[in-house]
Amino acid sequence: MSLIIDQLKETVGFIRNICPAVPEVGIVLGSGLGNFLKDIIVEASIPYEDIPHFPVSTVKGHKGALVFGSIQDKKIVAMAGRFHFYEGYTAREVIYPIRAMQRLGIKNLLLSNAAGGVNPDFKVGDLMMINDHISLATVNPLLGPNDELLGRRFPDMSEPYCPKLMAKARAIGAALKIPLKEGVYFGVTGPTFETRAEYKMIYRLGADAVGMSTVQETIAAVHMGLPVFAVSVITDLGIEESPAVITHEEVLEAAGKAEPLLTALFKQLIVAL
Length: 273
Hints:
Layout: H1 3-18, E1 25-29, E2 41-47, E3 65-71, E4 74-80, H2 91-104, E5 108-117, E6 127-134, H3 163-176, E7 180-187, H4 196-204, E8 209-211, H5 215-223, E9 228-237, H6 248-272
Parallel strand pairs: 1-4, 1-5, 5-9, 6-7, 7-8
Antiparallel strand pairs: 2-3, 3-4, 5-8, 6-9
Helix pairs in contact: 1-2, 2-5, 3-6
């Protein structure tokens, strides 16, 4: 048996000793989006630093805990804060919690992030449902030996985001009158924000938003056969008309303002699963 499987068994065993409930939905909360947790009935909250083989989040705006609870009758597990390649973790460390949540029993994965908009039709505060991504500027987390117990060697990535989940989200967005954009997410390593030339290149390559997360997590989920739904909160604009300087504090502020809409969308989507 491979090292990764042994590690996952230890991680899952530790977590189940604290919270034996089997979650149906896994959620990853991006920068400035942690207040979603106020809308769930929390059963257990485990700091990342206590969980065997888990990294520890180091970014402002990321709480750093695995939270178990429920929304109506749906059992969920939420990552209050994610891990990023730019923090110095390997790509495999970044996706380790996704693998752990899958082993805990989740059947769907919901991802959120703060992203820069490069589509000129976008504005700060928009929600963009990710319908595809471009991963050329990130490190693939599946590099290295493949364990067939996790997934096939060459997973198909022609449809990384689940059409059925997107269809449900469109209907929920319409019912709740939540304007929901759709587009392609361009993944980068960070931690720098993009140059003007890079923003232009990203848009010309076919993307609508750019960010430093999500892509590696999605690849891992697809590798394991786990349906993915993802939303970007557009927190800044990488277009010529926008201000030249972007700060992380401004990103967190914009994400916080858009959070109620994202929370409403996620809650109704979870209930509909």
